[in-house]
């Protein structure tokens, strides 16, 4: 049992790095084009939420901030995740275009003030993903823990690039399945 645990942990660690490396190899124009394609698909498939959580892109993740700007202009509110501590669920703090952001413990720009909000939609960046709707992140377990705790559960839409598609992330008991995955190739319902 111990060695099997170490194997799956080692596999995930190697996959996490590989997924970041694949995105890092995209040139800026390709990255921008694919991000824009994802935003177009989101525009035509996702109903505007009341409160949209999204992530400030890191590690060459897709940049879908344009749809958040659209929704803000149409009356929605937006929020970014805040890491209180490793092992704790995320909380979400309001973001507006004038919000002051400061790097958190991982260097991720994070609001330093603002209302704490509960999103009805979360746009979740996919470091890696599979067709069943499982996501590979950066190993913190933050979204798994957060989604396990949120009642009612918000709509979860993973946003990723096709180069980060994996046959199966070999989900574990704690892995939360996303409702939708949107890539530059389309919107996929995961039927979780
Ligand atoms: N853009 C973005 N923001 C996000 C997330 C995300 O996936 N993307 N998160 C999604 O949950 C949360 C942050 N989760 C993170 C977890 C680990 C690392 C990280 O850099 N890990 C190091 C190893 C650090 C360590 O072990 O101490 C690494 O990958 O090198 C970064 C973010 C909240 N904000
Ligand atoms: N609901 C939960 N309760 C307690 N621990 C959890 C829960 N969900 C995940 N974890 C723990 O978090 C750790 C990391 O999980 P995982 O490898 O799935 O992270 P990840 O999805 O890559 O990370 P992140 O969402 O931060 O990007 C695991 O060791 C797991 O035990």
Automatic annotation (TrEMBL):
The UniProt keyword set, sorted, is: ATP-binding, Magnesium, Metal-binding, Nucleotide-binding
Q: Give the reactions, separated by semicolons, that this protein catalyses.
A: (6S)-5-formyl-5,6,7,8-tetrahydrofolate + ATP = (6R)-5,10-methenyltetrahydrofolate + ADP + phosphate
Q: Would the keyword Chloroplast be found if you checked this record's keyword annotation?
A: no
User: Which GO terms fall under molecular function for this chain's record?
Assistant: 5-formyltetrahydrofolate cyclo-ligase activity; ATP binding; metal ion binding
Q: Top-level EC class, please?
A: ligase
Q: Give the GO terms filed under biological process for this record.
A: folic acid-containing compound biosynthetic process; tetrahydrofolate interconversion
Q: Which residues bind ATP?
A: 12-16
Note the superkingdom of the native organism.
Answer: Bacteria
**What does the entry list as the binding residues for substrate?**
61
Q: Which InterPro entries match?
A: FTHF_cligase, FTHF_cligase-like_sf, NagB/RpiA_transferase-like
Q: Which cofactor does it need?
A: Mg(2+)
State the EC number(s): 6.3.3.2
Pfam family name, one: 5-FTHF_cyc-lig
Q: Which Gene3D superfamilies match?
A: NagB/RpiA/CoA transferase-like
| Stated family | Belongs to the 5-formyltetrahydrofolate cyclo-ligase family.
Q: Write the protein's name.
A: 5-formyltetrahydrofolate cyclo-ligase
Species name:
Azonexus fungiphilus
Give the lineage.
Answer: Bacteria, Pseudomonadati, Pseudomonadota, Betaproteobacteria, Rhodocyclales
